[in-house]
Amino acid sequence: MNVYDFQVKANQQAGIELLSSFSALPTSVLDANRQINLNASQGTRRQALAAAEGISYL
Length: 58
Fold this sequence. Notes:
Elements: H1 8-20, H2 27-39, H3 42-53
C-alpha cells in the first residue's frame, strides 16, 4: 500500500519549528544528548533515524 504525502513542504516546516526549540535547551542537556549519540552503535543510530522519519524498521 502506497501512502503519498501531499503536504511535504508544510510537514518539513512543522518539523523545523518543532526541532527549533531544542536550541533553547541548557548546554548541559545538549552536551549529554551529544554524548549519548556519540556512544550509540551504528545500528542504534540507524534505528533512531528510521524512527524519526516514520520508517518501519522491521
